[in-house]
Amino acid sequence: MNKKKKKYQYPWRYNNQFRLLVDGKAYFSAMLQSIENASDCILFETYLVNSGQITTRFIDAFCAARKRGVHVYMLLDEYGCMELKAHDRKRLSDAGVEILFYHPVKLLTPATSLQRDHRKLLSIDNSVAYIGGAGITDEFTPAAGDHYWHDVMMQVIGPLVHDIDNSFYRLWNKHHHKQIILRDIPEESVENYENRARLLVAAGTEENEILRATVKHIRSCQEKAWITSPYLISSWKLRRAIRYAAHKGVDVRLLLPGPYSDHPWISWGIQRYYSRLLKAGVKIYEFQPRFSHAKIILCDDWFTLGSSNLDRWDQLLNLDSNIEIYDTHCNQHIVRLFEDDFSNSKRVELKYWKQRPLLQHIREWIAGIAISILGYIGIKFKR
To answer: Would you list the domain boundaries of the chain?
Structure first.
């Protein structure tokens, strides 16, 4: 008997407008402008917030919005925001910003302490939203130097914003005593079936729509499957789908961090899989100029982007959100982004990879042990 097909939490939405924003100067400027234009309600959820220049600008904008009478709700991961200083937190609370810190870290409750909110989204007045992989820290801006982090956010206008808001409300109401009334999602007329998008959510292995959609599209794609992720310590199921696509002649490319990474040992762990992937026909590129923190999967005319790193820790423990999109115009922008990044990357060739020094083998082996230990912990405390 076939297993009952799992349903997705949110339906396809049509008639949306998308704008791809590449690197901090573009997406931070757009996000701050939207906050300044807010007249009713701001929803902000993220994993990483560190005190610094860009965070000060966001705090200024949030406080100014409250002064105008705008309701501001911030859902922050407690662990990811450990470097948000006390005076910044006080500024927000004194301004009347509603703040919920997700899962405070407690040694006596390791299960909930390890389960983090990794989502990154901003929604303004139920009309425009931003979703992607960037946190609020100077590491994503030129203030960090020439090697500031490379990432993307997607601006969304249209019915999909209602689902992004709904996902925020559900999590907020589950963990906060002050409930937010869920807004009704209006019915929409379908005008263009070729422009459709859906919010994907992930909360552990049993509810991981992002991994499910990704594996499905990699296995069924016909021309290309291009993937970029900073921490691609993937499941066996995903690696098998990648090799399967390459074996049938699909142009499979992985764009991974090169010399710059916030966790070099994770990159060494990823490199354990290089030989087998290269032998299967997968092309591997390492981004050279900066640390690439973007998380995008492109399969023919479909793509998804968001907060999911597609690593085992993410899949077992974290809350994540992506959007999957069919949109010809936006797809072309994603293709150009990949092509630009490939041109700034070093391709890994199998014949040279086999000649890597002994030290590299040792690094991969040690990183593999560390990752296996983390994987065991993740399985023990998974959602």
So the answer is: 13-175, 210-380
